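Entry type: protein chain
Record version: 2
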Amino acid sequence: MSLRMTLSRVLFYAFPPYLNERTIRRAVSRPRKEATPPESIRKIAHIEESRVKGQRVLTLTPQKSPSGDQIIFLHGGGFVVPINLFHWWLVSALLRRSRATVIVPLYGLAPEYTATDAYEFLETLYLTATERSDGHEIFMMGDSAGGSLALGWAQRCRNEGLRAPDAVILVAPWVDLTMSNPQIPANKRRDPVLRRGGLQLAARWWAGEKDPSDPLVSVLHGDMHDLPPVYIYQGTHDLLYPDAVRLAQKITEAQGTVELRVYRGAFHDFIGALWTSEARSALRRIIAVTSSHGKKTLVHSEA
């Protein structure tokens, strides 16, 4: 664990958790601002905006030497908080270093929208992406709540016989909305970002009429057979760390290809702390995956 990671965690402890019950209720009680890419992205990418099922979709293509590959990036935020500056930093890094077109779906958020709505939206979006792929690769990527959707969509592709993504990239994924893993409470005081009560409230809204344990909602409960390669980046001081470990175990048990990279002392969505060596290391690996994926890897840990 780097000194910068330790200092960042201490600093974040000085502020209220990003996703506790109070901040989540406050987020849904206020008008949500329309997401706008920062000027730094406008300088390096051509931006195309469209509508899918009434929701905005931003397609960002590098101005210089685009590879033709596509990364569908699903942002986190507990299914209630819109895309934020941290996500735009990550998108900017992907554009600059992978040269792929990054598709940013601004999917409908809870409590107005549910998981059922999200998958109907993703179906239309994904079919459009495959039609325009022209033989190039498509990656599903998501952080936190977005990681749930990315993996869930890969499961849906398998179930419905659709073209699978070439790889699934998950950063601190929220894959079990029941929050029932008995090891989760041990990380309660380690993670300065998340609180279990807030996530459980968001989970009830996102599930809608479904039970939170339904595989459509909690993708950890779904079938892990015949999935594309899955790459997971997780910190040990993340409330969701135990479920990331379980996810990797389940994929391995299903004879799938998975890589779990664990960063000691890193908190939830640590990749946003680009001033730390842990975040930069994870980002380098993600760029490597999107540049030359498909090599069978083993589950392992990185200090």
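Comment: The radius of gyration is 18 Å.
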